[in-house]
């Protein structure tokens, strides 16, 4: 109170109106800075319905059709805001009332997945459609957005590259290529599927709990319960996943995805992750560092495709993943070498490693022809040049330019004048500002 009274006194003591206005501006400056900070942070943690409004406005460009049918005017939009466990009953009721053909097909697929994973074996939770989807990702024929390269790192016996792309809806998607020297696809397959060694060796120090809920000894499909440790400012995350491995030609395709499970009740901590996809292709490749003979000329490549909704704002998640990705990845290589040494010493394989050896064999020729014919109607994946050209052709109105200058100018002033104590805070402010004005730049 005393500070406010003294500030008012300084304003009244000014002999001219300009001096009084200057004192008032100095008094209101911190308040405006705090308001701008609250706006930016509030936008970073905005609810999903607000994100849907902005995405629809940016994509539609203010067209009459978009104005006639805003996204929040549809029942499907509001259904998407409900918790996952409430969507299926609501979807069934809507089917009976409206009889919408597309909605019926979509909700029937959701209900069928839930029933198959909860009342039958885990085998039907991961099927041939998942293999086709993974195969298209590996071949670059999924028709998704272009990939942007993030990093390229290497160790004496390992080479790593990573890419990222932003989907129209959902979390960012990641692709990586890891090439391990002096390793066979079978060794790497068992290594990634061995949950017991993953925890005992601590090469994946985020995994703190695992339990096999169901398994099929015919197909090798497993339903697994995971709990992963997150940083101190986040609660741990819980996963109910199904995974299955196919052998297609000389490569192994493993699909791992989140599935519903009513037998394990939800808790506030750890927080359950419903949207989870982490699948990989393991295949033998020529060594990039081989000497032309013997075992040193063989290598193994792991192509990983991963995305998940961790319940963290996407911009913050992208920043954290970019900073911590290599620190986690470089622990895989010494873990793999320790696994090879344990196998060479005669250590018995674990239960999960034995299940990873049960694969469904698929004919490469027939599968390739069928998958190619089913996807021949598409236009193919978009290249980076095409995506950039399309972005450059979008018109920019004066109002949009003014909004961009306003938000970016406020972010510059706030970052430089008030929050000069941390690089992370500045990166967060600029990242959210770019997200607000519709820029598609990487952090």
UniProtKB/TrEMBL annotation:
Annotated region described as Disordered, given as residue ranges: 365-397
Location in the cell: Nucleus
START domain mapped to chain residues: 145-341
InterPro entries: START-like_dom_sf (IPR023393), START_lipid-bd_dom (IPR002913), START_lipid_transfer (IPR051213)
Protein's name in the database: START domain-containing protein
GO cellular component: cytoplasm; nucleus
Coiled coil, from the record: none
GO MF annotation list: lipid binding
Main location: nucleus
Annotated CDD domains: START_STARD2_7-like (cd08870)
């Amino acid at each position: 109170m005393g500070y406010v009274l003294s500030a008012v006194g300084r304003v009244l003591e000014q002999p001219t109106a300009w001096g009084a206005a200057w004192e008032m501006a100095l008094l209101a400056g911190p308040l405006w800075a705090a308001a701008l900070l609250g706006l930016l942070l509030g936008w970073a943690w905005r609810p999903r319905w607000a994100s849907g409004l902005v995405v629809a406005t940016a994509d539609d460009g203010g067209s009459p059709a978009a104005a006639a049918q805003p996204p929040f005017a549809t029942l499907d939009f509001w259904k998407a805001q409900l918790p996952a466990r409430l969507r299926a009953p609501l979807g069934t009721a809507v089917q009976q009332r409206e009889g919408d053909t597309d909605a019926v097909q979509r909700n029937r697929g959701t209900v069928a997945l839930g029933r198959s994973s909860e009342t039958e074996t885990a085998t039907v939770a991961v099927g041939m459609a998942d293999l086709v989807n993974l195969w298209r990702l590996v071949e670059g024929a999924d028709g998704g957005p272009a990939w942007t390269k993030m990093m390229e790192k290497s160790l004496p016996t390992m080479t790593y590259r990573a890419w990222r792309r932003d989907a129209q809806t959902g979390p960012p998607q990641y692709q990586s290529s890891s090439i391990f020297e002096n390793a066979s696809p079978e060794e790497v397959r068992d290594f990634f599927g061995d949950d017991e060694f993953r925890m005992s060796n601590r090469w994946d120090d985020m995994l703190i709990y695992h339990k096999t809920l169901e398994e099929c000894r015919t197909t090798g499909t497993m339903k697994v319960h995971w709990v992963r440790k997150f940083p101190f400012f986040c609660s741990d995350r819980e996963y109910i996943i199904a995974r299955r491995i196919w052998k297609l030609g000389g490569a192994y395709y493993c699909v791992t995805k989140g599935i519903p499970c009513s037998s394990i009740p939800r808790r506030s901590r750890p927080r359950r992750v419903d949207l989870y996809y982490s699948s990989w292709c393991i295949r033998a490749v020529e060594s990039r560092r081989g000497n032309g003979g013997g075992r040193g000329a063989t290598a193994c490549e792991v192509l990983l495709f991963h995305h998940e909704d961790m319940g963290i704002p996407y911009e913050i998640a992208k920043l954290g993943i970019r900073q911590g990705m290599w620190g986690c990845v470089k622990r895989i290589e010494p873990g793999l070498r320790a696994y090879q040494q344990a196998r060479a010493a005669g250590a018995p394989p674990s239960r999960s490693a034995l299940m990873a050896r049960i694969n469904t064999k698929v004919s490469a020729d027939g599968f390739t022809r069928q998958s190619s014919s089913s996807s021949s109607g598409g236009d193919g994946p978009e290249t980076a040049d095409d995506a950039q050209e399309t972005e450059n052709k979008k018109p920019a109105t004066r109002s949009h330019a003014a909004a961009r200058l306003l938000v970016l100018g406020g972010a510059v002033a706030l970052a430089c004048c008030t929050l000069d104590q941390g690089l992370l805070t500045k990166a967060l402010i600029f990242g959210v500002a770019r997200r607000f004005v519709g820029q598609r730049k990487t952090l």
